[in-house]
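Re: [ENG-882] Designed sequences occasionally contain unexpected residues at chain ends

Forwarding the minimal case from QA. C-alpha cells:
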C-alpha cells in the first residue's frame, strides 16, 4: 500500500490521460462520435485525446468552459458564465477520428446514436454511491438537458469526469429538490445517471491499483487536494507511482 497526494489540477490531468485510453473512447474514435462538452476538467480530456490522434494544434484549455466557478472577487453572470465570452471555442466534437472544429453539442445531438459518447463535467459527486449532479444556470437546462435527449432517447453513452474535490456528503437528490424549489434563488441542480469517472477510476484503469480516499485539503496551491491510499501488486504500485509522479507538477488552471 502507498499513499499519494493529488492536487485538483493533477487530478484533472490524470482523468484526462485515462479517458484518452478508455476502451469506449478508443472504439468511438475509430467509428463514431465523441462529444467533449466544454468544462475545465473536460479540457484536459480533450487535450489528451486530441494529442493522441495528432490534432491538438489549435486547441486551448484556457476558455474551454461555459459556466465556471471563480473566487468571489472575479465577477460572473448570474448563469455562472464569464461576462466576456468572446474566447469560447465551442465543444470538441470528434467524428470518425476527425475533430470538427467550431461545433457544439447542439449541432450534433440529433445525429448521435449507440456507440457514440458524451463527456460532461459535473459539480457535485457522491463517490461511494457513484452519483453525480450538475448545477443548472441556463433557463433551458443547458448542455446536459440537450445531451439527455441522446442519452435517454438513443442510448448514447454518458461519461461524467469529475475530480474528488467535488465530493459532498449529503443526498444529491435531496439537494436538487431544495435548489429547484420555486421559492429558491440562484442555480438549480440536476442529478444525472452516467458513468462517474474520478481519479479513483482513472488510477484503476491505468495501473490496476484500487484507491481509497483517506484525507483532503491543503494550502499554498494544495487547496482541494486529496490523499489516496493505493493497493495493488508490487508491479501495479510501481506503475501508479510513476504515473502520479508524472502529473504531480501540473500547474494550477488559469484563465487565459
Amino acid at each position: 500500500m502507498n499513499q499519494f497526494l493529488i492536487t485538483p489540477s493533477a487530478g484533472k490531468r490524470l482523468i484526462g490521460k485515462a479517458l484518452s485510453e478508455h476502451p469506449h473512447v478508443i472504439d468511438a474514435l475509430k467509428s463514431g462520435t465523441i462529444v467533449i462538452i466544454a468544462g475545465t476538467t473536460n479540457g484536459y480530456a480533450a487535450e489528451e485525446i486530441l494529442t493522441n490522434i495528432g490534432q491538438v494544434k489549435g486547441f486551448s484549455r484556457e476558455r474551454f468552459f461555459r459556466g465556471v466557478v471563480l473566487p468571489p472577487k472575479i465577477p460572473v453572470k448570474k448563469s455562472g458564465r464569464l461576462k466576456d465570452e468572446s474566447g469560447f471555442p465551442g465543444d470538441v466534437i470528434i467524428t470518425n477520428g476527425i475533430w470538427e472544429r467550431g461545433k457544439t453539442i447542439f449541432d450534433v445531438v440529433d445525429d448521435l446514436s449507440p456507440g457514440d459518447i458524451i463527456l460532461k463535467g459535473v459539480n457535485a459527486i457522491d463517490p461511494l454511491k457513484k452519483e453525480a449532479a450538475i448545477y443548472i444556470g441556463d433557463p433551458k437546462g443547458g448542455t446536459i438537458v440537450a445531451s439527455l435527449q441522446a442519452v435517454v432517447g438513443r442510448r448514447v453513452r454518458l461519461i461524467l469526469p469529475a475530480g474528488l474535490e467535488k465530493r459532498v456528503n449529503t443526498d444529491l437528490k435531496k439537494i436538487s429538490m431544495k435548489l429547484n424549489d420555486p421559492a429558491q434563488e440562484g442555480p438549480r441542480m440536476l442529478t444525472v445517471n452516467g458513468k462517474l469517472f474520478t481519479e479513483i477510476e482513472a488510477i484503476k484503469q491505468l495501473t490496476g491499483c484500487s484507491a481509497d480516499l483517506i484525507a483532503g485539503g491543503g494550502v499554498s496551491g494544495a487547496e482541494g487536494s486529496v490523499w489516496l491510499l493505493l493497493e495493488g501488486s508490487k508491479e501495479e504500485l510501481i506503475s501508479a507511482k510513476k504515473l502520479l509522479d508524472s502529473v504531480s507538477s501540473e500547474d494550477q488552471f488559469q484563465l487565459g
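QA comment: On inspection the terminal residues look reasonable. The CA atoms of residues 123 and 134 lie 5 Å apart. Proposing we downgrade this to a documentation issue.
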